[in-house]
Specification:
This protein is an alpha+beta fold. Helices cover 57% and strands 9% of the residues. The strands form four sheets. A four-stranded antiparallel sheet has the order 3-10-5-8. A four-stranded antiparallel sheet has the order 4-9-6-7, with no helix packed on it. The chain has a two-stranded antiparallel sheet with strand order 1-2. Helix 4 crosses helix 9 (193-206) and helix 10 crosses helix 11 (255-267).
Length: 574
């Protein structure tokens, strides 16, 4: 034997002596301490001067090549989701195969090396997740997002998840050296079950039709329950003796399929099973029936909830349509009108899968509403000439005031001669501007991104439309009324001045003949005078001479309350 081989044998002998001389309890404590130390190893503290000194490295936000980032984004990083899938697969391997290895004689000396190799791969995945990934996932503490690597590692080590991860990777397999190769020593690997539920949550949050996955997951849970029941039945048959009674497994055919078939008939309470004969068989069958009723009813209820949540919006749409049809029939509405109403319902549902977008947005915070409105409509509103150069925040506030409306083919958005109170933005579809005596002449065709009716916001109150606008097909429009614009501009004086100048120029170009009256009245209604400062907590009094005795007597109490010194002239109280 060579010197190298003999050294290896000596090392193995020393390792065996250490294992056999160490108590199991102290061995577990040492392994736990070692894992805790290793989990903090990537975040070795540095002196303050070294941390504050500038160091050459990759651009900010990019980790060095070959090194993991200090904080991993678990919400939008696809690699994080793929790693979570790998951890969930390792957990599934242990959850599914450990009961089978304990019950069925599938672990033979010839296949032991393959089982050991697969178990080793799962253990490496567990260790990498506990040492490299979990300490780098962002966390919150008291509402603050933790991004510092040292704080992240400390937060992870103080959590319940770390305790479960330590228990899951505890190498209880070393007891095989004392008691033989037995899968029961890997039962702690099932404690990694949290990764499975975390993967499900992350996957459902990014799926368009998550209910399909929820149905498949519920079916998988049912199959897993049947799998465990089949393993327990084979264990009970082996305990009683294979083929000793009519109730136990008789040893013929594929043992797993026969036991699984029995589990299906027993857990779902189909019936037609052999009668149990011994006391053990009777108690086992009773417990199995009770457990089957509970599990099966729970899974059926969960399946009903999943399907009900998936079709809740469609059921609401159908109920609203049925109520509208009932209402129209009760008042004998003409059939053509009813057909148009049904067409509006069907197109609105097919286009946006909801009848009113505001119902969804009202459930969100104001910041989220603004973010969604900006992503959907800001590019359209910012390209309108009337609003170019205005304050960006003012445009964001206007986006929340826009009303979404869908028009059917041939519907009139506005008619010539009616009082104009709104402007419209074409978001989708096309509209036609009609003119002439009978509104039969097509003056223009407006496509998505164009605006019309802005004169209604600028002209005098009560001004009438100069043309008719009709939807060419299904048209999705955004409407902004005079009141919403006026309330928004009250908080942005600079944008109000800019819009005032643009309004004057636009009215001179579009209505030169009536500019003398319409311009003054229209802008006065759009930009009303500022409210009295007294309502804001300020009181201003201007002397006007000459004043009557009644006016002097009426203002004297306010003057004294405003200035105890009794000075004459301009007075202000805050």
């Amino acid at each position: 034997m060579s010197q190298k081989a003999s050294s290896a044998c000596i090392r193995r002998g020393r390792f065996w002596n250490v294992l056999t001389s160490t108590k199991p309890s102290s061995l577990l404590l040492k392994l736990t301490s070692l894992l805790t130390t290793l989990s903090s190893f990537p975040y070795k503290a540095q002196p303050a001067a070294a941390r504050s000194a500038p160091q050459a490295g990759p651009p900010e936000g990019r980790p060095e090549r070959g090194r993991l980032p200090g904080c991993m984004d678990s919400g939008s990083d696809a690699r994080s989701l793929l790693w979570l899938l790998l951890v969930a697969a390792a957990c599934g391997w242990n959850c599914w195969l450990l009961p089978a290895r304990l019950a069925f004689p599938c672990q033979t000396p010839g296949s032991a090396r393959y089982w050991l190799a697969a178990d080793g791969v799962c253990d490496v995945i567990y260790l990498c997740d506990a040492l490299l990934v979990q300490p780098r996932l962002p966390a919150t503490r008291g509402g603050d997002v933790i991004m510092d690597p040292h704080e992240l590692a400390r937060h992870y080590r103080s959590s319940t998840k770390f305790q479960l991860d330590v228990a899951a990777v505890m190498p209880l397999d070393v007891f095989c050296l004392f008691f033989g190769f037995n899968p029961i020593f890997r039962i702690n690997r099932i404690l990694k079950y949290r990764s499975f539920f975390e993967f499900n949550h992350r996957l459902e949050s990014i799926m368009d039709k998550a209910y399909i996955y929820r149905v498949a997951r519920t079916a998988g849970c049912l199959l897993f329950a049947l799998h465990v029941n089949a393993c327990i039945y084979y264990w009970a048959s082996d305990h009683q003796g294979i083929g000793t009674t009519r109730w136990v497994y008789n040893g013929e055919g594929n043992m797993y399929l026969r036991c699984y078939y029995w589990a299906v008939r027993s857990l779902i309470t189909i019936g037609g099973l052999p009668e149990p004969q011994t006391l053990f068989e009777i108690v086992f069958q009773l417990l199995n029936f009770f457990l089957g009723v509970f599990v099966f009813s729970s899974l059926i209820g969960q399946m009903r909830d999943v399907i009900g949540a998936a079709t809740a919006a469609q059921n609401n749409f159908r109920a609203s349509l049925d109520r509208t049809v009932t209402y129209m029939n009760s008042y004998s509405i003409p059939r053509p009108v009813q057909a148009r109403v049904r067409a509006w319902y069907e197109y609105t549902w097919d286009a946006q899968r909801m009848l009113d977008e505001s119902d969804l947005l009202e459930a969100l915070p104001a910041a989220m509403q603004s973010a969604l409105a900006v992503d959907m409509n800001f590019s359209i509103l910012s390209n309108i000439d009337l609003f170019k150069g205005c304050d960006t925040q003012m445009l964001h506030d206007l986006l929340l005031r826009l009303r979404s409306t869908i028009y059917l083919p041939g519907d009139f958005v506005c008619r010539k001669g009616e009082v104009g109170k709104e402007m419209y933005i074409v978001k989708q579809g096309q509209v036609r501007v009609l003119g002439g005596a009978d509104a039969a002449q097509v003056l223009a065709t407006l496509k998505a991104g164009t605006v019309f009716g802005e004169l209604s916001l600028l002209a005098a109150i009560g001004s009438r439309r100069t043309a008719s606008v009709m939807a060419q097909g299904f048209a999705h429009l955004l409407a902004l009324d005079r009141k919403a614009l006026r309330e928004t501009l009250a908080h942005y004086p600079d944008s109000e001045k800019l819009l005032l100048e643009k309004a004057r120029a636009l009215l001179r170009e579009t209505a030169p003949a009536s500019a003398a009256t319409s311009l003054t009245q229209g802008l006065a209604s759009l930009f009303p005078p500022r409210p009295d400062t007294e309502s804001c907590g300020l009181y201003v009094e201007q002397q006007s001479w000459p004043r009557t005795a009644a006016q002097t007597a009426e203002s004297e109490p306010r003057r004294k309350a405003a200035s105890p010194r009794g000075r004459r002239g301009q007075r202000m109280r805050v």
